[in-house]
Structure formats: C-alpha cells, structure tokens
Specification:
This protein is of the alpha+beta class and 622 residues long. Among the domains are: 9-218, Aldehyde Ferredoxin Oxidoreductase,  A, domain 1; 228-356, Aldehyde Ferredoxin Oxidoreductase Protein, subunit A, domain 2. A hairpin with a 4-residue loop joins strand 1 (9-13) and strand 2 (18-22). It is globular and about 65 Å long. Bound molecules: iron/sulfur cluster. The site of iron/sulfur cluster has 12 residues, from loops.
Length: 622
C-alpha cells in the first residue's frame, strides 16, 4: 500500500444492509489517485457497461465519498462526493472543505462506496471499530442546522457510553443532506460544517434516493504514515509561510470579488445573466465585514489561509441567519442573479440554501431562470401563488421552499434548470430553453465569458463537468506542452485538497514526500489527468436514461452567452460561435479526441483504457 492512504475502503449496500471492507490495488491508485479520479474508475468498472440504463436516483447508482492521498496533509482538507449525476447523467467530482475527510482517514478508511436503498431513513456511523447503519427516522425532514445539533449530541453520547474510559468525546464530523436531498431535488447538495456544500452534480438527491440522511465519522487513529515524514514537515512549514502571506485572500476570502467581478470584469450573473455588469458598492467582503462577520478567520483542516468568514445577521427580519461570508459564488447567485443587492437579503438567501440543503449555485440559477420567466409573463402569479419580482427576498424564500417541498411549480423547478425548461416549454407551448443558463444539465458557475475578461469562451462548452466553474475546460496553447490548469484542478479533486491553498512549486514535492510516488506535473497532465477526463467524457456522452447529449449540439455555451452584453464597459460584446467552434476543435485535438470530441482509439490505448473502446465505438457511429 502506498503511503498517504489508510489502506481500506468501505463498500456499503443499504438494501441488503451489508458492509464490507475492500482494498484497491496500488496500480489503480497510482493511475487514479482518489476522489474524482477514483470515483470515475470505480463507476466505470461497476456500472459502465450498463451506464445508459442506470437511473441516477435509483438504487443501482453508487454514491462515492472519497478522500485522496493528500487529504489531511495538504493544507485544506476536502471530501469528494460523486456518482452518476442526476443533472448531467455523467460524473462530477464535487468537493467540500471539511474535517469529515480527516476523521474518516483517522478511522482507517480512504472512502466509501454506497449502493442500494435503505428501507427506512438511516445514517452511517464510522469509527475505528468500523461502520454501522443507524436509524435516522428522527432527523428525516429536519433542516441542516437541526440535523447537525441532534447528530452531534447523539453520537457523542453513544461513543461516551461505549468507551467511558476515554472520557467525554469531542464532536464528530459529518456530511449530510437537508430536506432538498430527501425530496430528490436535483440541485440538492451534500453539505458539511453548516455552511459548506459539495454542490455541483446533485449528489444530495442521490444520497436522498438511498434514504441516507448523513454520514458521521469519528476516527481516533493518527493519519496514515507518509513516505518521508521529515520532508513533509519541512514542506508544510514552507507552505504555511506562503499561505499566511496571501493577504487579500486571507483577509477577504473570495468575497472580495463580489464588487470587483461585476464592476471590473463585467462577468457576474445579474437577473439570470441578462446582464453581467453592476456598480453596486454594497456587495462584497469589505462591506460585509463590519456588518455581519462574527468570525473573520475560519479555516478547513490544516489551512493557514483561513479564507472563510462566518456571517451572522444581527437584527431585522432575518436575524440569526448564519452563512459563510457569502463567498463570491453565492454573493452572485444568491444576490445579483436574483436582482438582490441588499446585503442582509444576500446573506439570508445564502443561509437559506445551506439550511434547506440546496446547492446555492445550481438551485439559485434555477430560481433566477424562474424569475426571468415571470418577468416575461411566461410564468404567472397563478403558476407560483405569489409575485416573483427581482430583488424580492421574501418571494425567493417562498420559491426555495416550494422547490424543496416539490409543491406546485416547485415540483418542476426541482428538476434543475434544464429539465424544468423542457417541462415548462411543453406546458406553456413556448420554447423557454433559451433562458436556461446551463451546460449539459449543470447550471453555470458565476463567471461569465462575454466580456472576455474572466473565463474564456469555450471553457464551459467542452467541460466534462458541464457548467462547473471549478474545473473549466482548458484553453490549450502549443507553448504550454499540455500542462493545463484544468488538469491541475483534476489533480486537486483526485488528491483531494483545496485548490485555493495550493502552492504550485511545492505541491509535487509534497506529493512525493507523502506517497513516495515521484510524479511530476507533466506526467500527471499527460497520463492520469487525461485518463480521468477521457473516462469522464465517455460516461457523459453515454448519458441516459432520460437525456442523452450529442457533441454537435450540446458541446456549446448557454444561448444567453451569444447575446450581446446590454450594459457596462463591455456593452455589445458576446461569445462568437465560430470562435467557440474553432477553439473546441483545438481542444479536442490537443487532448486526443477526434473532430467530434470522441476519444480516439489510439489515445485510449495510450492511456490504457482499451476496455472502454467497445462503448466508445458506439459513440463514434452516432
Ligand atoms: S483556502 Fe479557504 S476554502 Fe480552502 S481550505 Fe483554506 S479556509 Fe478552506
């Protein structure tokens, strides 16, 4: 077993109430690492040949909950949640910062593969003694804040009773879902630490489909051995010196971007992306700090960057609401995208998403879509039961609750933006897909492409994770020799640590010191990174069972991005179809895919993926 790994995985079948410990050979770990990479490999091996018939919300789907070899060592520990996505029908590696990943490793496990469906609501309790299936009927239906409180008290009591000689147990760490996941809302997140979410992909709904409310971990063992402990220590000292010197990020987190991205880059979603520019100086970390921050430096495990800030509304109608900052994405999606420019309302909407268990990016994208339909008179007061005007936080609160409960129009919007657009088009007899800002079913992150100052113009169109802004498709240039930021994002998701905390010139040395694998960036980008993306691409195109994507039609930007920006310094600018098409082809070629973006037989052979050739052949014929 390579160093950095605990050495065991858990296989949990909730239908049969069967739990087994498994090991994964070192050769596989070297080729896929952990997190996103290993999820893709395991999902292909176990489900790949019947992929198109697997219902993401059916018992056959596998929810993967994985750490990676750098989890617990690299600053900023995260957990990577994956499976067949109920939004894209492909695979997304969704990560969230949490100590849960460290507790899991300290309990002796690198990850969990969960299949089946429990007959009643359950949670998993993982300790040094193994994994148990526990009754969760008493927390089913509870909002996230209550779920955490109840499970914390309950698990501490159980462990104290079982091992009284240890004394009072400190609180465990957990991942969980809210009512959104329970009700199979496709934009539901898997959440942790009250305010963190693995949002992209809709894995909260996958967890809900298995009647699985939470996974709680408390490990008492140390982290696994490393290959060169002294070097790890030296490198981490250097890491922390560097991280602590990143003053702006440390002081404001990504929240500093709330004003800057909208005003300077003109790439922030406003009113469902009808605009991308604003000059609202009330938005953003520097304005929120005095008003809301009750904890100005908060971090995930082993991270001196401490970019998180806890906000609490101190008075008024939303008094007591708690969220983190909000970070840039939720300043945008729970703020400007809903026409909300009032800071209290922005913090409230972000806290609401956390508590209902919705992904703040994805679900708020759907709410913005609904509000635009209301603005255009396509959805009416009769459809909603209330007026839905831009900036009205009360109305958006009602809408979020309708979605979570799947009531009235909420039942349609709970399907995510794209599926809701298809249904509303049918219902109203008018094509509303043009207002759906998604790529392959995944709502687009809060970074626009039209101004040309932020993300580049085909980064979403060719992305194997659709609209996910954390891992956009690269813009390859002959000079970069295939070392692309996209593949470094795949590395962070597979070694499983926080991308914000990476120190590029130290990370490969740290990888060597932890694992003993002398792997360099070039090798990762040429071999492992491409292997993972290629496998993800194939499974995305195999898709199904309800929606299938075709490269010609669906490797594209949302239609909105071809409309000229109506306001701001980049007024009139838009993505250009011919440029996007050309860049897409360049990307396909650079990554070893054919003209249509289907991996070539030669590339599959080079990557050791011959076993998927049979499925890929079918895609080439379509
Ligand atoms: S950089 Fe911020 S988000 Fe990342 S691990 Fe550190 S505190 Fe968490």
């Amino acid at each position: 077993m390579p160093r950095g790994y605990a050495g065991k995985f858990l296989d949990v079948d909730l239908t049969r109430e069967k739990i087994e410990e498994t090991e994964i050979p070192e050769e596989i770990l070297y080729r896929y690492f952990g997190g996103r990479g290993l999820a893709v490999k395991v999902l292909w091996d176990r489900l790949g040949r019947k992929w198109s018939s697997i219902d993401p919300l059916g018992p056959e789907n596998i929810l993967t909950v994985l750490t990676g070899p750098l989890t617990g060592f690299h600053p900023g520990s995260r957990i990577c949640v994956s499976g067949k996505s109920p939004l894209s029908n492909g695979i997304v590696g969704a990560t969230a910062g949490t100590e849960f990943a460290v507790e899991l490793k300290c309990a002796g496990y690198d990850g969990i593969f969960i299949t089946g469906k429990a007959s009643n609501p359950v949670y998993l309790l993982i300790t040094d003694d193994g994994c148990e299936i526990m009754d969760a009927s008493h927390i089913w239906g509870k909002i996230c804040e209550e779920t955490i409180k109840i499970l914390n008290t309950e698990v501490k009591r159980i462990l104290t009773k079982r091992k009284p000689r240890i004394g009072l147990w400190r609180e465990p760490s957990m991942i969980y879902i809210g009512p959104a996941g329970e009700n199979l809302v496709r934009t539901a997140a898997v959440l942790t630490k009250l305010v963190h979410a693995a949002g992209y992909g809709g894995y909260g709904a996958v967890m809900g489909s298995k009647n699985l409310k939470a996974i709680v971990a408390k490990g008492r063992g140390p982290l696994p051995d490393t290959a060169a402990p002294k070097t790890v220590e030296i490198l981490l000292n250097e890491y922390h010196k560097r991280l602590i010197s990143r003053v702006r990020m440390r002081q404001w987190g990504t929240g500093y971007a709330g004003y800057a991205v909208g005003a300077n880059l003109s790439s922030e979603p406003i009113r469902n992306w009808q605009e991308e520019w604003h000059d609202e100086r009330n938005i953003g970390g520097p304005k929120y700090s005095a008003r809301f921050w009750v904890k100005p430096y908060w971090a995930d495990f082993n991270c001196t960057l401490s970019c998180m800030k806890i906000s609490c509304i101190k008075s008024g109608r939303w008094k007591g609401d708690i969220t983190d900052m909000p970070d840039y994405e939720l300043e945008a999606y729970c703020g400007t995208n809903l026409g909300i420019f009032n800071p209290e309302d922005n913090v409230h909407m972000s806290a609401l998403m956390d508590n209902l268990g919705l992904s703040g990016i994805n679900a708020a994208n759907t709410m913005g879509f609904a509000a635009e339909l209301y603005q255009r008179g396509i959805l009416t007061k009769e459809d909603l039961g209330f007026e839905l005007k831009w900036g009205d936080a009360e109305a958006f609160t009602k809408l979020a609750n309708l979605i979570v409960k799947r009531e009235k129009i909420g039942n349609i919007l709970a399907e995510g933006t794209y599926r809701a657009a298809l249904k509303i088009s049918e219902m109203k007899g008018i094509d509303v897909t043009r207002y759906a800002v998604h790529v392959k079913g995944i709502e687009v992150g809060a970074h626009g492409i039209r101004s040309g100052k932020d993300f580049h113009d085909k980064c979403y169109a060719a992305n194997v994770q659709g609209g996910d802004h954390t891992s956009p498709a690269a813009d390859p240039s002959p000079k970069d020799a295939g070392v692309w930021t996209e593949l470094n994002a795949v590395f962070a998701d597979s070694a499983v640590f926080c991308m914000f905390a990476v120190v590029p010139d130290l990370v490969w040395e740290l990888t060597y010191a932890v694992t003993g694998w002398r792997i360099k960036e070039e090798e990762w980008c040429r071999e492992q990174g491409r292997r993972i993306i290629t496998l993800q691409r194939v499974l995305l195109l195999l898709g199904g069972p309800d929606i299938f994507w075709t490269p010609e039609k669906d490797d594209d930007n949302p239609r909105r991005f071809y409309e000229p920006l109506p306001t701001g310094p980049y007024k009139g600018k838009a993505a250009e179809k011919t440029v996007v098409e050309r860049k897409k082809k360049e990307y396909y070629k650079a990554i070893g895919w054919d003209e249509r973006g289907i991996p070539t037989e030669e590339e599959l052979r080079r990557l050791g993926l011959e076993d998927i050739e049979k499925e890929v052949k079918k895609l080439r014929k379509q």
